Amino acid sequence: MMDPLVCSGARAGKASLIDFSILSVAYVSVPEDAEIVVVDSGQPRALRDSGYAERVAECEEAAAIIGPLGLAEESNLSRVRDPLLLRRTRHVVSECRRVRQVAEALEADHLWAAGAYMTESHRSLAEDFEVSTPVLDALAEHLRSIDGVYGARMTGAGFGGSVVALSRTGAIDVDALPTPAWIVTASDGAAR
């Protein structure tokens, strides 16, 4: 549902904060001095041949134990006994918290905080959810090393694909990167 909601309901200058646990959309201002860059890792992904279906099944198994993961609190994690399932659940529950924290940081124009949450997110995607790859990890690390980059994380379902970085305007020279990269802006969704 995320892609259709964003494509149809996006607003210029705003990030869409979608809460699937209660089916709501809120709009968060993106500071004018923020730049969002998407960088292709050069590593194609094929979800059919990846662990994506396993992650979906693991999340469903965890939800059967503690309820909808989007509504769960980190205190609920103690009810998950299986170590692998605990890591998967910890990622989803903490990621929901981080998404809210990024929204608050953007609204407050605290780009360093938003970037730190993005970096924390990548670490969780790599270690707890295990959907990152060495190529994605290296690209995210490289982007974070650039002066003026606040944070970077893999984006999408993982197992290849792209990394998204939050930076000050002009910090990343997309033409100097070894793989295709795009500066993206929040714009209005599709109209009839």
In short:
With 192 residues, the protein is an alpha+beta fold. The protein has helices spanning 2-9, 52-66, 83-107, 111-127, 134-144; strands at 14-19, 24-29, 34-43, 149-155, 161-168, 181-184.
Keywords:
single chain; 192 residues; alpha+beta; Alpha-Beta Plaits; two-stranded antiparallel ribbon; 40% helix
Total helices: the number is 5
Regions with little confidence, pLDDT below 50 for 5+ residues: none
- The rough form would be described as globular
Q: Give the biggest beta sheet.
A: 4 strands, antiparallel
Label the structural class.
alpha+beta
Describe this structure in words.
Helix 2 crosses helix 3 (83-107) and helix 3 (83-107) runs antiparallel to helix 4. The protein has 192 residues and is of the alpha+beta class. The protein is globular. The two termini are 19 Å apart. A hairpin with a 5-residue loop joins strand 4 and strand 5 (161-168). 40% of the residues lie in helices and 21% in strands. The strands form two sheets. Strands 4-5-3-6 form a four-stranded antiparallel sheet. The chain has a single domain (2-184), classed as GHMP kinase, C-terminal domain (Alpha-Beta Plaits, 2-Layer Sandwich).
Layout of secondary structure:
Layout: H1 2-9, E1 14-19, E2 24-29, E3 34-43, H2 52-66, H3 83-107, H4 111-127, H5 134-144, E4 149-155, E5 161-168, E6 181-184
Helix pairs in contact: 2-3, 3-4
